[in-house]
Amino acid sequence: MAEGANAVEAALAGGTVHELFVTERAAAQHAGLLDAAREAGVAVSPITDRAADGLSETVTPQGIVAVCALLDRPLEEAVTPAAKLVVMLVDVADPGNAGTVIRVADAAGADAVVLAGDTVDPHNGKCVRAAAGSLFHLPIARVRDVAAALAACSAAGLRTFAAHGYAEAELDRVDLAVSTAWVFGNEAHGLPPDVLDRTDLAVRIPLYGRAESLNLATAAAVCVYTSAMAARR
């Protein structure tokens, strides 16, 4: 379920929408979206405000909800030798964090996002909302076997960097102008030792102030954008 005009617009552009539900108020506000849906052969069904409340997981529903196809792709389709920047989440539990990182990856021009291990389902409503349409912009792969996901990145020619708060290597001293897969771990526990051992290099973000750490989404934004900017320089 993609809720809200931004997510629905991205889903329509990606050709993944099966049906669109819209209230009278939302239909008047987003007439262009409805026209695009009908032109694409998508069924548009009017619903009441009460029905919209039932479909929505938000406090103030926008009144427009799309039922979409599942988005995850096989690992070999998402991570290819053409990839220059891939983001991998390992055992990330919070859907808001996962969705925000997907949005960051999209904004930074990443080629794919891999959700490995016990990472939350990207189709979770909170994840879809946090991704703000980016879920429909780049390939998303889900794989239970973390070792297989890392091996696929290496086989595609990507250097695997693990974000780790206790690493010796600091972000501003690492050559990031290479094809890279960034690996981020669980919000509370980080990456397990066996995963760290399988990556090419563990990297930490230097903290210049008194904060003990950065949260997952912020750390991902710093690391992924640092790689993206280094590649473009």
Layout of strands and helices, then pairs:
Elements (H helix, E strand, L loop, with lengths): L1 E2 L1 H9 L3 E6 L1 H6 L1 H9 L3 E4 L2 H7 L8 E5 L3 E2 L1 H4 L6 E6 L4 H13 L4 E5 L8 H7 L8 E4 L2 H10 L3 E5 L5 E2 L9 E5 L8 H6 L2 E4 L11 H17 L1
Parallel strand pairs: 2-3, 5-8, 6-7, 6-11, 7-8, 9-11, 9-12, 10-12
Antiparallel strand pairs: 1-4, 2-4
Structure characteristics:
60s Ribosomal Protein L30, Chain: A; Alpha/beta knot; 2 domains; eight-stranded parallel β-sheet; four-stranded mixed β-sheet
Description of the structure:
InterPro entries: Alpha/beta_knot_MTases (IPR029028), Ribosomal_eL30-like_sf (IPR029064), rRNA_Methyltransferase (IPR051259), SpoU_MeTrfase (IPR001537), SpoU_subst-bd (IPR013123), tRNA_m1G_MTases_N (IPR029026). Residues 1-74 form the RNA 2-O ribose methyltransferase substrate binding domain. It comes from Amycolatopsis balhimycina DSM 5908. Pfam families: SpoU_methylase (PF00588), SpoU_sub_bind (PF08032). With 233 residues, the protein is an alpha/beta fold. The chain has ten helices and twelve strands. Strands 5-8-7-6-11-9-12-10 form an eight-stranded parallel sheet, sandwiched between helices. The protein has a four-stranded mixed sheet with strand order 1-4-2-3. Helix 6 links the parallel strand 6 (85-90) and strand 7. The chain is elongated, with a radius of gyration of 19 Å.
